[in-house]
């Protein structure tokens, strides 16, 4: 069994943006533990999503922690805006800038939890030097930039390696990309305790389905029916 409690973090990248506030309320009511906020700059990844202004607007509709995944480079100039706008966890990519340690320190200095993300092509050794400076490690299980992609199975090995690096430290291990109820058990067994899921929760954008889908991922990951 995973040591840390399983957390389900629906990614609002797959929400209906024309009804974003209602979509966030629906996943909150449906049992989301975190709200996963994907920020893309069209430079670090080949897509543009939204920024701190949009995130701040939905801060008013839920008290659930905002798990902000910054796919932007460089990130430093924007950290204060996301902190002020209501982020709880701010995750930057290990590949996004030359001074990872400095950026992580800046996030903690803003009073927020600091996360570091690894692209599929980036080895776990890239974050060895900052492991005592993070609260969360995010293993990408797709190439970042788009929702709805398929889970890359090699991510399970990456999770096991990240888990070994984390050891007994109180650091969350998050997986992001292609997570479904069908692969959640293997993901949890590999050591992840925070599961991001976008398209597998928001498909069809029918709020009446969200609670069941969140529960199905949680039950698969924990091996328990809620
Ligand atoms: O960071 C991301 C993409 O870069 C998203 O969080 C991720 O893709 C979630 O969407 P899905 O569950 O549909 O794969
Ligand atoms: Fe993400």
UniProtKB/TrEMBL annotation:
This is Ribulose-phosphate 3-epimerase. Belongs to the ribulose-phosphate 3-epimerase family. Keywords: Carbohydrate metabolism, Isomerase, Metal-binding. GO terms for molecular function: D-ribulose-phosphate 3-epimerase activity. Binds 1 divalent metal cation per subunit. A divalent metal cation binds at residues 36, 38, 69, 176. The gene is rpe. It is an enzyme of class 5 (isomerase). Catalyzes the reversible epimerization of D-ribulose 5-phosphate to D-xylulose 5-phosphate. Substrate binds at residues 11, 69, 145-148, 176-178, 198-199. It holds the Pfam family Ribul_P_3_epim. Its EC number is 5.1.3.1. Pathway: Carbohydrate degradation. It catalyses: D-ribulose 5-phosphate = D-xylulose 5-phosphate. It comes from Devosia oryziradicis. The keyword Metal-binding applies. Its cofactor is Co(2+); a divalent metal cation; Zn(2+); Mn(2+). It comes from the Bacteria. InterPro entries: Aldolase_TIM (IPR013785), Ribul_P_3_epim (IPR026019), Ribul_P_3_epim-like (IPR000056), RibuloseP-bd_barrel (IPR011060). The active site is at residues 38, 176.
């Amino acid at each position: 069994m995973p040591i840390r409690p399983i957390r389900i973090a629906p990614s609002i990248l797959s929400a209906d943006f024309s009804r974003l506030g209602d979509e966030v309320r629906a996943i909150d009511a449906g049992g989301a533990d975190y709200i996963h906020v994907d920020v893309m700059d069209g430079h670090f990844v080949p897509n543009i999503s939204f920024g701190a202004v949009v995130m701040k607007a939905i801060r008013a509709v839920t008290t659930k922690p905002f798990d902000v995944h910054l796919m932007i480079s460089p990130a430093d100039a924007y950290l204060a805006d996301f902190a002020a706008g209501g982020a709880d966890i701010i995750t930057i990519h290990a590949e996004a800038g030359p001074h990872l340690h400095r950026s992580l320190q800046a996030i903690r200095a803003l009073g927020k939890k600091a996360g570091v993300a690894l692209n599929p092509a980036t080895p776990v050794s890239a974050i060895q030097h900052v492991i005592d400076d993070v609260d969360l490690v995010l293993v990408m299980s797709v190439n970042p930039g788009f929702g709805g992609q398929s889970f890359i199975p090699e991510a399970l090995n990456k999770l096991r390696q990240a888990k070994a690096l984390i050891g007994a430290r109180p650091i969350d291990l998050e997986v992001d990309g292609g997570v479904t109820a069908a692969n959640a058990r293997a993901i949890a067994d590999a050591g992840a305790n925070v599961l991001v899921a976008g398209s597998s929760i928001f498909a069809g954008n029918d709020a009446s389905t969200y609670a069941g889908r969140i529960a199905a991922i949680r039950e698969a990951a924990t091996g328990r029916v809620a």
